[in-house]
Amino acid sequence: MALRAMAEYAPMIQDRHAHPAHNSPPAGRGSTVHAEITFSVDTGEMPVNETYEAGRVIGRRSGAREQRRVEIADARAWGREMTLDRNGFELAEHATTVKNFFDATELARIYYAEIEQLVSRVSGAYRVHVFDHTLRSGDEAEQSERKVREPVLWAHNDYTEWSGPQRLRELLPAGAEQLLKRRFAIIQVWRAISRPILANPLAVVDARSVAAGDLIKAERRYPHRVGETYQLAYNPNQRWFYFPHMTRDEALVFKVYDSEKDGRARFTPHCSFVDPATPTGAPPRQSIEARTLAFFA
Questions:
Q1: Could you report how far apart the first and last alpha carbons of the chain are, in Å?
Q2: Which of 31, 164, 177, 179 sits a CA distance of 20 to 30 A from 56?
Q3: What's the predicted TM-score (pTM) here?
Q4: What is the spatial distance between Cα 53 and Cα 143, in angstroms, rounded to a whole number?
Q5: What are the Cα distances from residue 32, in Å, to 71, 106, 155, 269?
Q6: In Å, how far are 25, 126, 253, 281, 288 from 12, measured between CA atoms?
């Protein structure tokens, strides 16, 4: 069932019934595209996603869905105005020394440390811990050959009010309860791993434009654990953005959970989309997202 509005969310949540123009991207500032995005429909029953293994990973997905055509603005026009705590995301220049993103050993040895430093710099966290990563490809043959996942084409947020703290308990059981006494966040980093991304870019929603009632809890079943995500219901007030033609030396840093309830961004729904501006014959997307626990004093 959709999460209901609660008093502590009041500073960050827009009125769902406010006039849609209030959250439309300002006219004349950067370009926009119009694209179809798949949203969930709240039926009162919790949707379920089952994940089996890499390579066409979604084994089963239940729940009602609808497609809506939305306006997605080029976030590059906003520059440094888009920040992690205000909007839920920001773009960072971030050169990486990784040679082969498909080499798990190299990722653990080099990339994880790079990401921990980046997230600390962007968020101000005193401690950052990378706990996993996901490689994705828009090429079905490569998905099967390399055992990597496909782009996710429905709007979602990876963690919920419950599953954010629960993931910390699962990953760091010995110190979790002490760590939960202070602010912590789950922050993800998304980037191209080779060529600039021309197909299936990632769109993100300005967290300030997401109402509590837009977030629909969904059960996420893995082979060895059960998690919970938010799927997103359509709301005309939502403001969508993307960074076109992201290169290997750029990183999109976005927040999918924050324990602090002081008005800063807490959840940032996102999804890939079919960009109508994609050139004919553009290569399939190759990307990586790293997930981190970030701890604050």
A1: 34
A2: 164
A3: 0.88
A4: 11
A5: 6, 37, 18, 19
A6: 18, 24, 19, 41, 29
Tokens of 18: 């406010």
The identity of residue 296, as a single letter, is F
Provide the edge-to-edge strand list for the sheet that holds 48-51: 32-41, 64-74, 240-242, 202-205, 270-272, 156-157, 226-232, 215-221, 48-51, 58-61
Round to whole Å and give the CA distance between 255 and 265: 8
- Neighbouring C-beta atoms of residue 224, cutoff 10 Å: 5
Q: What is the dihedral of CA 184, 6, 68, 47, to 10 degrees?
A: 80
Q: What is the mean pLDDT of residues 215-226?
A: 86
Amino acid at position 196, single letter = P
Enter the tokens of residue 133: 């990563």
Sheet containing 286-295: give its strands across. Answer: 89-93, 250-258, 184-192, 286-295, 127-137
φ/ψ bin of 44: left (φ > 0), alpha (ψ from -120 to 50), beta (otherwise)? left
The mean pLDDT of 1-12, rounded to a whole number, is 34
Contacts 24+ apart (CB under 8 A), 2-5: 2/42, 2/212, 2/213, 2/214, 2/215, 2/216, 2/217, 2/233, 3/160, 3/161, 3/212, 3/213, 3/215, 3/216, 3/217, 3/230, 4/212, 4/213, 5/211, 5/212, 5/213
Tokens of 72: 């997605």
C-alpha closest to that of 197 among 85, 80, 289: 289
